[in-house]
Amino acid sequence: MSKILLVIGSARPGRVADKVLGYIQNDFINRENIEATVVDLAELNLPFFNNENSPISPEYVITDPQVAAWSELVKATDSVLFITPEYNHSLSAIQKNALDSLGADWAGKPVTAVAYGWSGGSLAVANLREVLGNLKTDTKQTIAQLGFMKDLNPDGTILDAESVKAQIAATINEIV
Q: Residue 156: is its pLDDT beyond 90?
């Protein structure tokens, strides 16, 4: 059984991420031995990182219960798939904060993403790869990049079903 943590990296009302989550879950219907857990960072409500020690420091101790819950979710899974919006050519603040809140939990963890936005989320993906590399994750090569007016409408409805399905399947194939 492959345990996958699906992390919604947007907190906006009416967000496209919810539709993208549905497209990912549709891919899982045809797969066996996958247990997916969805974490909505807006609901997890992590505090902005405020520990006196860096999460990669040996002295780092998690003191916040929400961060402890986040840590347990990451530790309990085999791999993580971020649903990544591109905001102002970067990751969302809520997603960056979630990444920054943990250190050793990320080391060696297989991580991928399904990104979306006007540029297919390409700049958010570049930023995500940089952060994940610093956190020493096992960042997968294939990351879906769903472009508005190419793959998706700006409201998240599908424009090119074949492309969306193929990109999501290729992304998931690397972590199962």
A: yes
Calculated CA dihedral for residues 99, 149, 123, 97, nearest 10 degrees: -20
Identify the bridge partners of residue 36 per DSSP, sorted by sequence position: 4
Which CATH number do you get for residue 81?
A: 3.40.50.360
Residue 117 CA to residue 73 CA, distance in Å, equals 27
Q: What is the DSSP letter of 150?
A: T
First CA to last CA distance, the chain: 9
Q: What is the pTM of this model?
A: 0.95
Q: What is the pLDDT of residues 51-109, one digit of tens each?
A: 899 998 899 999 999 999 999 999 999 999 999 999 999 999 999 999 999 999 999 99
More confident call, 57 vs 137: 137
Residues in the chain, how many?
176
* 45 Rama class: left (phi>0) / alpha (psi -120 to 50) / beta: left
Domain that holds residue 58: 2-173
> Tell me, what DSSP letter sits at residue 126?
H
Rounded CA gap, 54 and 120, in Å?
32
C-alpha closest to that of 18 among 40, 49, 48: 40
Residue with tokens 């409805």: 157
Domain count for the chain? 1
